[in-house]
Design brief:
Length: about 425
């Protein structure tokens, strides 16, 4: 989940147009509109769609409510504008990187531009909006924005050359997806580094994407293990199973009690018999998801002494859950919709999971199966890839889950590029 820079203080010149907005030029109307989108971007990253209000935006800018509603009559229109602006910036980065001559140089330039945008946000510039809640918008806006993102993903796929066969297309799509999701995931961990260290961090990040995680010849464990059965009552388990999948697909706002109960052929009263409110549902989904991933890691540690077998079995098993489309792990993108206190706890747990994976990778380096790479960055690459795999259920059609997992893990293990 993205961490946003703090809002400008109204007593510290917040009412005046930002220098960055002034530099962009355009009419007074456009500059004011950009200021509103800038403020909404920061608030959206901080509070999510649910927590951000038009009143928050007006307060941040020192404007009246009518001054904002003149440009955006409803909050959803403003949120859509924020996502459109973010996708436009992302598309511009991809276009610029596409001009480089080789796949490695294209990816390196893309990463450099993304890191630059992150650093500029830390210096008070516009952050890139967290795109995780695009699916929560109404159908028209959602369809338009998702189509725009898919166009961007296809351009990123083009970094790696032509997709001249179905097998090649699947491989290049996996590369593009893992690259993009690794960039989006950065804001869960990149803020832990000083701004002056970011160039070195960027080089270490690219090194992992270039050569992969494993030493050549290291195999992924193809065995999958299952998390322990849920301890929730049978009917509540059904709620959580369906709700997790729907939240992953349509976001928290797009998942209603009515849609959950319609899929289960139950009444609303049945839902409220087990849960007091929709908020309780997302918190329960997160807790169960965290426990299931922890179960996978614990069983892998119990069954194997090899550090790499522990890591690879956990990854293979988690990917199987994400691609099966029955009861996936809750995507971290859903954290934006959680109550603030729970969201902070969820982020803390995600960081702890990353540290656990990092420790296993360090041990695997000692046994000679993992390359000498930055283990913290590699751990987050693994977690971002697991998190994002649910998006590729359509991509895996025409191949078995085992084949899809093997392709995905090839990218993680060997890197993004063809051997030279």
């Amino acid at each position: 989940m993205r961490r946003a820079s703090a809002l400008p203080d109204p007593d510290d010149g917040a009412i005046a147009p930002r220098a960055e907005a002034a530099e962009r030029g355009g009419s007074r109307y456009e500059r004011q509109k950009e200021r509103i989108v800038d403020a909404a971007t920061i608030l959206l990253n901080q509070k999510g769609m649910r927590g951000m209000t038009l009143a928050d935006v007006t307060s941040a800018l020192g404007l009246t409510t009518t001054s904002v509603t003149y440009y955006f009559r409803r909050k959803e229109q403003l949120v859509a504008a924020v996502f459109e602006e973010a996708l436009g910036r992302l598309a511009a980065m991809v276009r610029e990187a596409s001009g480089e001559r080789t796949p490695r140089k294209r990816v390196a330039r893309y990463i450099e531009l993304y890191f630059e945008a992150f650093a500029q946000a830390l210096h008070g510039g516009r952050p890139i909006a967290n795109l995780s809640e695009m699916r929560s918008l109404g159908e028209d806006a959602r369809s338009r924005l998702i189509a725009h993102y898919r166009d961007i993903l296809r351009e990123v796929r083009g970094f790696f050359g032509p997709a001249d066969s179905e097998e090649r297309k699947r491989l290049l799509t996996a590369r593009a997806h893992i690259l993009n999701e690794a960039l989006f995931w950065q804001e869960t961990w990149l803020g832990q580094f000083a701004i002056g260290d970011l160039p070195n961090v960027r080089h270490r990040f690219f090194e992992i994407l270039d050569g992969g995680i494993t030493v050549p010849g290291t195999a992924w464990d193809v065995r999958t293990i299952a998390p322990d059965p849920m301890t929730e009552p049978g009917e509540q388990e059904s709620f959580l199973r369906v709700a997790t999948r729907l939240i992953n697909d349509t976001g928290y706002r797009g998942t209603s009690v009515k849609s959950i109960m319609a899929e289960l052929n139950r009444t609303k009263g049945s839902f409220y018999h087990h849960l007091d409110a929709k908020d309780d549902l997302i918190v329960s989904c997160w807790r169960v998801s965290h426990r299931r991933l922890a179960d996978l890691r614990a069983k892998a540690y119990r069954d194997y002494s090899s550090p790499w077998k522990r890591v690879s079995t956990t990854v293979t098993s988690a990917l199987a859950l994400q691609l099966a489309d029955e009861f996936p792990l809750l995507r971290v993108t859903a954290y934006q919709a959680m109550p603030p206190a729970v969201r902070e706890l969820a982020l803390l747990q995600a960081q702890r999971t990353a540290f656990g994976v990092m420790g296993a990778l360090v041990e695997a380096m000692g046994e000679g199966t993992v390359r000498p790479i930055d283990p913290l960055i590699a751990a987050h690459l693994i977690l971002s890839s697991i998190n994002a795999a649910h998006e590729l259920r359509g991509w895996r059609h025409g191949q078995s889950i085992d084949e899809a997992i093997a392709t995905y893990e090839t990218v993680l293990g060997e890197g993004l590029f063809d051997p030279e």
